[in-house]
Amino acid sequence: MSVEKKWTIEDVGALYKRPLLDLVYEAASVHRAHHNAEEMQMCTLLSIKTGGCTEDCGYCSQSVHNDAPLEKEILMKTDDVLAQARKAKESGSTRFCMGAAWPKVLDGRAFDRVCDMVKGVSDMGMEACVTLGMLTQEQANRLAEAGLTAYNHNLDTSEEFYSKVISTRTYQDRLDTLGNVARAGISACCGGILGLGESEDDRISLLHTLCNLDPQPESVPINMLVPVEGTPMAKNEPLDIFEWIRCIAVARILMPKAMVRLSAGRLTISKEAQALAFMAGANAIFTGEKLLTTPNPEKDADYALLGELGMKPRAPFKDEQEAA
Ligand code: SAM
Ligand code: DTB
Ligand code: SF4
């Protein structure tokens, strides 16, 4: 999807500062014009290689620079990953996302194996997504050939605040990988984390950068910081929940066609706040008791919430293509 309107930072700031319920009302209208507001995409995450990452992301349990209590695990076997994908499909997920704690992809047997995993998931009729750190153009092209739907690569926060969170790579490094992903014809899943200690201006700047990516991201994960013991952000003040809602509503208005994905942090967010987030245009969640390394609401609780709200899980896009 190409950028239909160029948003300035002033436009985004003015939108962000509108009265909250006005903003939610507009976001809900935009949402209904572009999506079926009854549907929620259910996605499952799997950590295929855990811990030991050499980047120094201040929020992350998997960085060697942090001291989080975590069992490191080598790259999983393809068959084991595909067995998990099959289980996820049976329990209603239409997108399977595989995460590896790598700073960047290195060519070799490990990457060959990840390409096999992507092919296997795609052949099952599920959307396949991976997040593997930085990628070259050739590596992005190989993932496209394997059938990858989307590559998750977050900008996390504003360019201005970035060096306070991560010092081992730059914002431009992230943008370069997103360029390689776009040129390979893979959709980008690109969003951020709230609650890192950033200012309102940083949140506005992040949303401004995201909506001006060309093409706009197909999916925008909104993570709320999960404070992890042993990381520099373990004692961060939780972000006001209305700021979270505000960001979701602004993301929906700026990126009308994208899936706005509630990612990390839902376990501590009330069902009423989640319902308001759905109203404001969030239309995808991760289900299952674990994200990559931190806990997530149980599947039954999520299905119960959808039922109470009269919502339903979205059908896989491959079924939609077949039905068309
Ligand atoms: N290494 C790859 C990378 O950084 O792109 C992929 C894995 S990384 C864990 C995927 C995303 O998870 C990060 O970009 C970040 O937005 C999010 N994340 C990681 N730890 C988090 C935490 N404690 N709370 C919220 N979001 C987190
Ligand atoms: C994203 O933005 N959020 C997901 C997914 N992309 C890979 C990961 C959330 C991870 C939360 C921390 C953890 O469980 O380790
Ligand atoms: Fe964690 Fe990814 Fe940063 Fe590595 S690059 S420390 S896995 S967020």
Short account of what is shown:
The chain contains twelve helices and ten strands.
In words, what does this structure look like?
The protein has helices at residues 9-16, 20-34, 78-90, 109-123, 137-146, 162-165, 171-183, 200-211, 241-254, 271-279, 299-309, 317-323, and strands at 39-49, 95-100, 127-131, 150-152, 187-189, 192-194, 219-224, 259-262, 284-286, 312-313. Helix content is 40%, strand content 14%. It has a single domain, classed as TIM Barrel. Strands 1, 2, 3, 4, 5, 6, 7, 8, 9 and 10 form a 10-stranded parallel sheet that branches. The protein binds S-adenosylmethionine, 6-(5-methyl-2-OXO-imidazolidin-4-yl)-hexanoic acid and iron/sulfur cluster.
Secondary structure elements and their pairing?
Blueprint: H1 9-16, H2 20-34, E1 39-49, H3 78-90, E2 95-100, H4 109-123, E3 127-131, H5 137-146, E4 150-152, H6 162-165, H7 171-183, E5 187-189, E6 192-194, H8 200-211, E7 219-224, H9 241-254, E8 259-262, H10 271-279, E9 284-286, H11 299-309, E10 312-313, H12 317-323
Parallel strand pairs: 1-2, 1-9, 1-10, 2-3, 3-4, 4-5, 6-7, 7-8, 8-9
The structure holds S-adenosylmethionine, 6-(5-methyl-2-OXO-imidazolidin-4-yl)-hexanoic acid and iron/sulfur cluster.
